[in-house]
Amino acid sequence: MDSRITITEVRVRGFHLDGYGHVNHARYLEFLEEGRWAYVDAHPEFADGLARGVALVAVNLNIDYRRAAVMNDDLKVETCLTRIGGRSGVVGHRITHIGSGELVAAATLTFVLLDQQSGQVVPMEGAWAERLGPLVVDVSEEK
């Protein structure tokens, strides 16, 4: 597996379910968040910058739900950086069912980096471009 992609495993529990016995749509946001934090933990070049008073702030999220996840399903959340631009970046996620390999959901999250002291967006140039550029994965080349 490409070291630029992190894997987080999640077991579906009862509190994740809605009245129909499926994972509630809002809980997928938590699964994706777990994936992003695992990604930051695995990439010190990202974590070091965030530790210096910069926050990763979600500005857009798109989720494509493909298959219902139910109680006791084991899910794999794959997370990678798919694009960085001048002021924003995109994180890609794939959630698959571990047993069957079926795609459960795919998501893209657009984010900005925010200086927590000034409240201003931090441009993704200079040191940030050097940190994040090598982490970008071309998902069109993925399976």
UniProtKB/TrEMBL annotation:
Keywords: Hydrolase
Matching InterPro entries: 4-hydroxybenzoyl-CoA_TE, HotDog_dom_sf, YbgC/YbaW
Pfam families noted in UniProt: 4HBT_2
Top-level taxonomic group: Bacteria
Keyword Acetylation applies: no
PANTHER family: 4-HYDROXYBENZOYL-COA THIOESTERASE FAMILY MEMBER, LONG-CHAIN ACYL-COA THIOESTERASE FADM
Family (UniProt): Belongs to the 4-hydroxybenzoyl-CoA thioesterase family.
Record-given protein name: Thioesterase
Source species: Salinicola acroporae
